[in-house]
Amino acid sequence: MKIVLDTNIIVSAFINPKGVPAVIISLVLAGKITLCYDNRIFSEYVEVLKRSKFNFDSILVDAFLDFIKDNGEYIIAEPQNIKFDDEDDKVFYDVYKSSDANYIITGNTKHFPHDKNIITPREYVELNY
């Protein structure tokens, strides 16, 4: 299975390693899910995860980012002709539509167009596990 993962899910998993977002990350790390990304998404992951306000362990962050580069699926995304209130969210949609990803998993489904495959982490786990 392939997914596009909004940055807020990764941040949530790093903050609470026992929460549902952490289950998603565990599935990625176990090779059960492939993470689809492009340069824009990867750059956002790096920038957000390395913010000093989070104070995440830099070794864990770097290991996670290396894992994504080594095991994720890099996508050359075709920009979609759709307007987003927050254009930062559009990159995830572009990758989703340009790949054969099954889902976008996000904590902010209301920021995306209505699509049955744009779901929360809890919905993903309930549907698939």
Summarize the structure.
The chain is 50% helix and 12% strand. With 129 residues, it is an alpha/beta fold.
Describe this structure in words.
With 129 residues, this protein is an alpha/beta fold. The chain is 50% helix and 12% strand. The protein contains 6 helices and 5 strands. The protein has helices at residues 7-15, 20-29, 39-49, 58-71, 87-98, 121-128, and strands spanning 2-5, 34-37, 73-74, 103-105, 118-119. The chain has a 5-stranded parallel sheet, sandwiched between helices. Helix 1 (7-15) crosses helix 2. The longest helix is centred in the middle third of the chain and has 14 residues, at 58-71. The chain is globular and about 40 Å long. The mean pLDDT is 96.
Please count the beta strands (DSSP E, at least 2 residues each): 5
- Give the radius of gyration: 14 Å
Largest sheet: spatial strand order: 3-2-1-4-5
The chain-level mean pLDDT equals 96
| Class by SSE composition | alpha/beta
**Span of the ends, CA to CA:** 12 Å
Give the H and E element order: EHHEHHEHEEH
Helix percent reads 40-55%
Determine the strand fraction and express it as a percent band: 5-15%
Largest sheet features: 5 strands, parallel
Helix tally equals 6
Shape: globular
Break the fold down into its secondary structure elements and pairings.
Elements: E1 2-5, H1 7-15, H2 20-29, E2 34-37, H3 39-49, H4 58-71, E3 73-74, H5 87-98, E4 103-105, E5 118-119, H6 121-128
Parallel strand pairs: 1-2, 1-4, 2-3, 4-5
